[in-house]
Structures are given as C-alpha cells and as structure tokens.
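Interim report, section 4.2 (structural modelling).
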Amino acid sequence: MDRTKIVELYRRSEELGGQAVTVAGWTKSVRDMKNFGFVTLNDGSCFKDLQVVMNREALANYDEISHLSGYNALVCTGTLKLTPDAQQPFELTAQTITVEGTCAADYPLQKKRATVEFLRTQQHLRPRTNLFRAVFRIRSVAAAAIHSFFQERDFVYVNTPLITTSDCEGAGEMFRVTTLDPKNPPLVSAEAAEKSGGALTAGDVDWSQDFFGKHASLTVSGQLNAENFAMAFGDVYTFGPTFRAENSNTTRHAAEFWMIEPEMAFADLNDYMDNAEAMLKYVLTTVMEKCPDELAMLNKFVDKGLLDRLHHVATSDFARVSYTEAVKILEKAVADGHKFDYPVSWGIDLQTEHERFLTEEHFKRPTFVTDYPAQIKAFYMRMNDDGKTVAAADCLVPGIGEIIGGSQREERLDVLERRIHELGMNPEQYKYYLDLRRYGSCKHAGYGLGFERLVMYLTGVGNIRDVLPHPRTVGNADF
Amino acid sequence: MDRTKIVELYRRSEELGGQAVTVAGWTKSVRDMKNFGFVTLNDGSCFKDLQVVMNREALANYDEISHLSGYNALVCTGTLKLTPDAQQPFELTAQTITVEGTCAADYPLQKKRATVEFLRTQQHLRPRTNLFRAVFRIRSVAAAAIHSFFQERDFVYVNTPLITTSDCEGAGEMFRVTTLDPKNPPLVSAEAAEKSGGALTAGDVDWSQDFFGKHASLTVSGQLNAENFAMAFGDVYTFGPTFRAENSNTTRHAAEFWMIEPEMAFADLNDYMDNAEAMLKYVLTTVMEKCPDELAMLNKFVDKGLLDRLHHVATSDFARVSYTEAVKILEKAVADGHKFDYPVSWGIDLQTEHERFLTEEHFKRPTFVTDYPAQIKAFYMRMNDDGKTVAAADCLVPGIGEIIGGSQREERLDVLERRIHELGMNPEQYKYYLDLRRYGSCKHAGYGLGFERLVMYLTGVGNIRDVLPHPRTVGNADF
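Predicted structure of the assembly:
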C-alpha cells in the first residue's frame, strides 16, 4: 500500500498540499453533521491527528463511516487541502474510505478519562490513549537519544549477560533461573558431598544438574562485566534489562527494568559527573525538540511544572557538594527548625526526604553529592585518601531524588583485595575482576542510570507501572 | 585529564599536527632500539594504534618504559608529528610517559595467536585482542545502525518484557524464573485443589505463592506484546534479549541472545520484505563505512570472502520465490544429480542444506522464500486464499542460511479463532491477542532478526560464542 504517514504530512505539507494521498490509521472520533462529517484519524506516527472531511454526496459509504464508534482502522484516500487559517494546517478531503477493521461494541476504552489504575488492566490497549501515546513515544525517543549520545562520543555498546552464575553481585535480591524439576529437584548424594570436601551438603539441591551446571540467577547489574570491556575499548556502555526480586510494592520499584551503565577508562569522579550531566541534558534537549506535542499534553494534564523543570535542568549547571558538606547543610536546616522523619548525622545513608531537601530546597537544581562514607557504599568504589570516604557520587534531581549512582572504581589491586577481605567476601569469586587490576589497570569510573526513573522524570508520570510497556512487579506479570 | 582519544587524532590530524597532546591507552608492543624506542598504543577508541616515539635523552623514565611487556596502561604527552611519507600518517614524540598500571608476568594473553577456544576461557580479557576488538565494535556499530534505521522511519522502540507468565509462547523451551524455596517448594493442598475445581492438582508446586503469583518464565519472543503497540503506534520495533532453554550445543545456538522484532500496521508480506531488505542493507552499509579497519582485518584473517560478500549483498536485489517454486527448484536439482541428506517434497520444513542451495547455488544472493505450508508455521501467520499456505517469508543469506523469519499476521478474528481451535490451543490464553482483532484490527506484518546471526554474518565469525560478550550456552554461564 502506497500510504503516507501523518507525520510525513506535517513534515511535507507544503509539497503535498493539493496532492492526492492515502492515509491509514484509527478513528479517534467520528462526527456526522448530516451532509458532511469529520473523522479524526491517528496513525501513531506522531501525536497529532489528521482531520478527514467527508461529504455525503462524494463518499459512497458515507453512512457506514459516519456511524462508526470506538477504535476503527480506516484507509482514507483524498486530497490534502492546506487550511492556513484554521486550527489545523491541513485536512484531508476524502474520496474513498475503506474500513480495515471495525470496533466491537464492548471496547473497554469507550469512556473518556479512564483512570490509570483501570488502564493497567488493559495494557494491550492503553498505548492507544493520549497519555500512553505520549509516554511511550518519549520513552522511545529518550532511548534513541541515549544511544546517539554515547555513539557520537565513540563509546562501544556492550550487551552484558542477564543470566549470571555469580552469587556475588550483592546489589539486591535475585531471581533464580532454572530448568530443574520444580517438585522433585535432584539432590546432592552423600557420596558426592563427601567427595566435594565440604563444598556440597548432602540433601541440598544439586545445581550441577541444572541447565548451566550451576545455580543461575538474573543479574542485578552489568557493571562488573562492563569493566571487562572498558579495559579494552576505553569507553563503553550497557543499555539493557536488569532485575530485582525485592518484595517492595512502591511507585518507584519494578522487578524488571532497564538500566544504562557507562564505564570509562582513564576517568575519575569528575569525568563521570561531567559525562552524566552532559548525557542528561542531551536526552532532555532531544526529547523537548522531538516531542513538543507530547510534552505539552503532559504539562497540561499530568504535571503542570514539567516543561519549566525540563527547561531549567537542561540549562542549569548541576551543583556538586560533598556528602560531608551536605550533612552540614541538613544539620543546619534541622537547627533552623526544618523537620525530617529520619535523624541526620555524618555516616547515615541519606533518605529521600534529605535528598529532596538538598536538590529542591537548598540547591534548587540537580545536585551531585560526592564522597560518601565507605561503609554505606559498595566494595568496588575507590577509597579516598582520608581512608573513610569513597569516590562515589549520586545525582539527585528535583521531584525524584536519586536518578544516577556512580563512582570511581578502585583500580589498585592491593587496596581492592584488602577491602574484599575486610568485608568478608570471597576473593575467589572476584578473580576475573581482580585480574583487571593485575593486567594494565587504570583509573576508571562509571555510573548507572535507571531508565524508567528517567522516563518518569521526562514525563511527570508518578508510577513506574505507567512508564513500562508491560510492568512486572510483586504479584503482577500479566500480558 | 585533558586527553585526546586516538580516533580523534585520526579525525583531526591536520589540525592537531605539531600540537601537544595527551593520549592514554594500553601497550600492544614496546620496542627498545637502545637510544630510542617505540610504543604501539591502543586506547580502544578505534581499531588503529598510535605509534609513540621515545628518545632516551628526552624521556626521564626511558628505561622503565622500554622494559614493559604485556598490557600496560600508559598516559603519554608529547607532540603529534605528521609523517605523510611513512606508513602511519602521524606519530607521537613523547615528552612524558606515566605508567598507570603495569602487567603482571603471568598475563594470559602473552603469546601471539591464542585459539578462540582458549580465549573463551578468558572472556574478561579477550576484548583486548584484535579479533574481539573488531567483533565487538562491529556489534556495537550494527546495534546503533538498527536503532537509527527504525528511528529515522518513525518506528517506536518498545521494551517488551522478558519475564512472562504466558505458557503459550510455543517457540521453544523456556527457563523458569522463581524465588520459591528450591528444595521445599510450597505445594497445593488437597483443599485448595478441590476448591479450584480441577484447575489445580493437590501435591503440585503451588505457583500462586511464587513472586509473581503465577508460574513465570523467560520469554522466547516479544512479538505478541509488540503487536499491542503496533496497533497504537503503527510501526514499532523491539531490540532486546530473548531466551531458549534448549539443550543444543551447536555453533549457532545460545541460551541468551538478542532479537530485533519489528511490527508494522497496515503492512503486508511485501511490506515486511521491503523493510527487512532495506534494513539489512542499511546495517551492512553503515558497518562498511564505519568499520573499514575491522573488516579488513577480518577479511584477512577470518573469512577471505567477507568483504566481497558484504558488498555483493549491499548492492543486489534480494530474490523472492515461493516455497512451492523453491521445492520445484530443489526437486529439479535432485533430478539433475544434486545430493541432499534430507529428501525434498512439498510440505517438508526446509533444512539448512536446502536453504543454502537456494541462496548460494541457485539464486546466488539473499533470497526470501514465501508462502510456506500452514502446518509447518506458527498459528498467528495469515492464511492465504489457497487455504493451505500462510503469508510467511524467511530470508536466507549465503553462508548462513535463515537470518530473518517473518509473516503477515492473521488479522481476521474468525480465522484466527478457528486456527487456535484447530491446533487445540486454549483461546483463554490468547484473550488479549484476540482483542487486537476485535477492536480496530488491520492488516499487519512483522519479523524477527537474530542479532548474533547478523553479527556472525557481518564478521565472518563462525561460532555464536565469539560474537556474544559473555555467551550463555548449555553448561556455561561463567563470567
């Protein structure tokens, strides 16, 4: 079918005005004014609709079309008429309209203004609504912008594996991946246990008989794998799914979500922050440029401060403050009468209320908090010269709190080994990771950006279930 | 650190010639000629190296550097000297060289020409070799090209979920995803079984107590979910991981691999083939343009026909032949004395030997075989008017065989329901899928491209384990 997408009509209206075109899409509304009528058609290629004008006299099946309701698939051929004085820049005067598919009377999205809660039960249909059309196009444009940002800077995209047999990731609860008989799994025999010299316990599940010959799980982070590639390609990034088997039923947590994890060789904490700030601004700017209609709708109906906030973030320098300084700011706020639910003192893990105070009330812009106490951060973060803080930085943004976490990595073999030992971890499990420090180690840094958090930020949508095509959360993996 | 990547030196050598620059990277070789020496440095930003020239007199730590062996991280500052008459267009005359990280003497990649089998045991280090540098950069460039191709055509990128509770995917064996106690899973009580009216069996594992409240698996395809979005956005694509728990230990199968699954509304079988052909040519052309050094190396050491084949495919029209016609061609070949291991007759599923004969010997170019017998294809493929073939097409390429499978989807509710019934499938499990045919159904088509197959094709590498950063296959999920 030689059809023109509606987005092309908008791009090339000058050229196409007065021409015959064929457009295929779905009805958003049909109005019958007796001798003429209007079909509002959307084909998903852009947020904007096309107004199709039909005349009873000129259209053989005028009655068929004018009686349609709900979501019908039509193919419309006609002349594109430029209407410079009307609200829309053009309309299509229909010569023929063919019905590809009608809409059964029990269409679940008939009524205007369905709640987002109801729409979560209609995940196969909700992309047809204005809200989800906007959210999922912005998601797609943001994802493409992330690839462009890193590719333009010669980063190599690495697909780190999702199935892992390392039990040492430590960033969260993991899902098991298995093909063993769930009811009668093979068990370790007394003989095998004895042979193993204490490694195996008789009567435990015998994972050596599972698909991968070991106990396997879904990864919580691709970072350690990404470092393998950073030590060859210099700058790399991942962009893929990640999992958490945490029983947390909040608006910000999903069991399956997408992460971007860049890793940069010959880079320190400032290099990471420079890169992350540039990346966020690049994505914001791209979305503002490519999705003005989507953002305008979201700004009107979802979050009235959205456009202001995006403009503000895209143009302001992010603040950078040390954790130690941040704690002083929070302590002063408490002394001045500000109430927090959680007490503040050096050594605490900052709570969302603290993060939001810093970014929303104190700095009033995105803020990197740097150099956290070692004991509240991961083992691989680089120890600072003070011996008690590490070169980590979290990026906090107004309205959300933490959106990025990152650090310079410990590149010194002896320091990293000592840290693994101190934390009672098993160095055997980190052999490959330590190898990177044995052979051509260098200063390097990286970070993780939760993609859904970013999409929530870009759209003003408050629940992670509404920015994932088909969200997976505790008790929910339908569709 | 204000460093310049080696790729930038090549891009901007005119401008940077005679200037002081700092370059950070790893040693590929160090040669000491007594009073002067050479360091071949690579920083991963491009395939090309930088030659660093050091003079004993001018470099304070000449002895330290000239004695390095293996893979050492260096930061070199000096003057970029253009050498228009030499093999390399420029070299760096070092003023200072700082060692960031040395290389322990037991570096596993010391010896030249390690086998790919050995390198699979060194997955954290193998990206440092020329072969894997080439493969994984091409993988990254190809992935970015795929996103560009679809984004330029206004396709929406959809992240379909990996965890699924549909047991109805049918495209292959699935991995179970669970957080139940593996040894003592909860079992369905006699009481619960009775209450369920036959749906549950007493003594079976009680999946209602698992994380998602149901039995969950890793998906084998995002297609059915992608269709949900195609019926709203028109043109969509997925690009993400997919899983098969198949016990097949071949050079072409992995348990975890990446797929691209475009889905297009108002499109028929020819539209899919046009799109897929354009996409493959776009990716090939982009890789040839952006990775000439990588391809030259692969053409020299891995597959001497690689460049010829890529040029040929990028510039030739793909053949299109019906399955029925293809069977006649194969039958004629048999009659003419060609030997196949598997017999040929109408109704068989084509074997790799048949596919390769068609694309390599008969058509001598990529070939779409169309309109397969319904009984060897999936339930969702559109029934042709003959009542025995479906509007499916596989794309076969010389040297590989099938690289893409796709079809027009059955958009007619009654025909689809009848097919589900005939195949003894449970229509309840397809409620959402059938809903798409109830409300605004339209002609649509889509396809699946296995990304690793494509990377194998682009690089000439014969084993899927060598195009995946960290491959997962039966018995292997290390790193």
